[in-house]
Amino acid sequence: MMDSIVIEPVVIPARISGMSSNRTISSVQLLLLNAIVCGLEFCASAGFTYIPPMLLKAGVEERYMSIILGLGPLLGFFLVPIIGRASDQCRSRYGRRRPFIFGLSLLVIVSLVMIPYGEYFGVYAFGDSDSSKNFGIFLLCTGVVILDFASEACLTPCEALLSDACKNTDKRERCFTYYSFMISLGGCIGYLITALDWRSSSVGMYFGGQEQSAFSLLIVLFMFTMFATLLVAEETSQRTFENKNDYVNLNGTKTDDNIPLIIEDKSKNGSLPSISLPERKMDHSVLSDVTSPRSILTILCARCGEMLPETVQNLLRIPVVLRPLAIANFCSWTSLMCFNLFYTDFVAHAVYKGNPNAPEDSPLRELYDEGVRMASWGLLFHCITSAIYAYYFIEKLIQSYGTKPVFMFGAISMTLSLMGMLVVPGIVFVNILASLTGFAYATLTTIPFLLVNSYHENKEVRLVEDINL
Questions:
Q1: Which residues contact 190 (CB under 8 A, 6 or more apart)?
Q2: How many CA atoms are closer than 13 Å to the CA of 22, on its beta-carbon side?
Q3: Which of 30, 111, 286, 386 to pair with 422, CA 20 to 30 A apart?
């Protein structure tokens, strides 16, 4: 038995009892909670299948296209942490996550309208002139940036909503398996929409073309998934928690964040130990060393760090045990996102030898459009592989071999598949290799979340065990 324990101030549920699971959540509820994740994924997958060819057809050079495609992630790099923190502190009566999910979903819908119909808005505003064409290109590029940013940023409150809903339930260890499955299912739907030929159908004739038909269907389907998640999610307002005192400090009072809590084990009946705050004392030994060169350098480095953007500061404060995971996740997602963005253009150029800048209805232009459509089948198989692997196999493999070998398998399969596409540029072989990259996709949407959840849960368990000593 310990005499005293020093811990940092922390907020703990007042009704906590051994961290045991006391709630149940059904598989149908989990699927509906992840419905909007499925919607975001089929919007992003279908959208970014068409976006590179649409930018090239509009006359945007490839070097500028890469800049446009990079603006969305750049905005997300700076704004997503702010959105996440604002979501944690939100006091809306609709909950902490749903207001942000709804707002970002509206941005997704607006972008899905701007991308295919930007040219029509330009003609409506300026008539048939060069100004209308330039305005249409501007709306197309703006819609691309908004779609990229909003579809990625919206995943942050969605993941938090899922984690909140599954905490202390019987599904807390499997919740992100459903998440990965729904992402893969969304990719299947999105790539299937782009793989079908809508131009000769009644839908294509009504909406005016392949891209317009696909994006219009995406808008309708996405609205269904958005409302499914928003209606099934059960969130309690942060104000309710504060009023009911469900979340209190360890001693039921406000504490100074700079003062550690001292827990003295004086209880005899098994209840929580008593808690007291230590007095502030001046550490004269620290003051005597503050003028040393090493201390001055440390202070200067700390001051310089405070001047960095908050996102960069958060990256530098990643716990040491999670840094290898963060680096591996960063490199893996960089590779996977490049593959998803440029695969259709690669097939249309390298395999079908098409040209997006060729005149409309010319053989080279038709070859390019056919290559984009056939590449969509490869991305569809990629998502089917990911969905099957995530739902049926990855959890069993983790239990049998551990997380590290399973993660390495996903990374190696991705590397070998990309190398094979360069060696044998045939459409059948390339699409088969594209389907094998689904192993990496399922890995990246499952294992990192499981590891981070395990890290936080283990911290909570150790804290409660220490308190009960």
A1: 41, 42, 43, 44, 45, 46, 47, 49, 218, 383
A2: 6
A3: 386
> Burial of 283 by CB count in 10 Å (0-12 exposed, 13-18 middle, 19+ buried)?
exposed
12 strand-pairing partners: 248
In this prediction the pTM is 0.69
CA distances from 408 to 298, 402, 413, 448 (A): 38, 11, 8, 13
Residue 28, number of CB atoms within 10 A of its CB: 9
Angle, helices 130-153 vs 35-57, to 10°: value is 150
User: 394-445: per-residue pLDDT in tens?
Assistant: 888 988 998 889 999 999 999 999 999 989 888 999 999 999 999 998 999 8
Residue 125: partners with Cβ closer than 8 Å, 6 or more residues away: 132, 135
Amino acid at 57: K
Alpha helical stretches, state H, 199-292? 202-207, 210-232, 238-244, 284-289
Instruction: List helix spans (H) across 245-309.
Output: 284-289, 293-307
* 8 Å CB contact between 431 and 344: no
The residue behind tokens 């490869």 is 378
